[in-house]
Amino acid sequence: MSETHVLIVEDEENLAALMRGYLEKESFLVSTLYDGSTVENFVQNNQVDVILLDLMLPGKNGVDLCREIRQFSEVPIIMTTAKVEEIDRVLGLEIGANDYVCKPYSPRELVARVKVQLRGAKVKKKDKRGLVLRVNQLCVQNKKGQIELTGVEFNLLHKLHSQPARVFSRDQLMDAVYSDGRIVSDRTIDSHIKKVRKKLKALDDHDFIQSVYGCGYKYIEKP
């Protein structure tokens, strides 16, 4: 377990040190960041297996960070916060967080939650029947080969692939693909989906992306 890397993003240094101590006792490799503006770059340039992400941070808050990280990574994210309102918990999970812990919490409970997320991620990695998305290379591969995608195509597939069987509306897919907030038509998304489908057919005859009439699209894993 010594190679398992946990990133703590917490501006309360005493709390971060406490969390770090408990995790290191379990032989995790631990990194700590105290400012939200440094997180995205760190995750893009380092292999991180789990992120403990505080909601309220200087530089950039946890909600924005979670959304941004989900554009390029499926790393498990456990959000931590002193806010206990139900709306905050729902928001945290809807933006892509895997779990949510309210302060004050037991450090041992947090370690247990980290282990749960690692087990879930390990199960996903064992499934070799579907597609493997390579973020840094903007490509998709399986046992049969590899194809390259454009940035827009990759982000679109990544969004669908991140939550199999969930139906995403065209508006949700637009937000995932065009983070600058530009306005595009439904036909633009449909056109990109058509191109991604055509490329995926070169790897497998399975229809990974399915349309849901009047709603949007969903990713279906290979049985």
Structure, described:
- This protein has 223 residues and is α/β, with parallel strands linked by helices.
- The chain has 2 domains: 5-126, 3-Layer(aba) Sandwich (Rossmann fold); 132-219, Arc Repressor Mutant, subunit A, CATH 1.10.10.10.
- It is 41% helix and 20% strand.
- It contains 8 helices and 11 strands.
- The chain has helices at residues 13-25, 39-45, 62-69, 86-94, 107-126, 151-162, 170-177, 186-200; strands at residues 5-9, 29-33, 50-54, 77-81, 99-102, 132-134, 139-142, 145-148, 168-169, 209-212, 216-219.
- The strands form 3 sheets. A 5-stranded parallel β-sheet has the order 2-1-3-4-5, with helices on both faces. A 3-stranded antiparallel β-sheet has the order 6-7-8, with no helix packed on it.
- A hairpin with a 4-residue loop joins strand 6 (132-134) and strand 7.
- Helix 1 packs across helix 5, helix 6 crosses helix 7 and helix 6 crosses helix 8.
- It is globular and about 50 Å long.
- The model has no long low-confidence stretch (mean pLDDT 84).
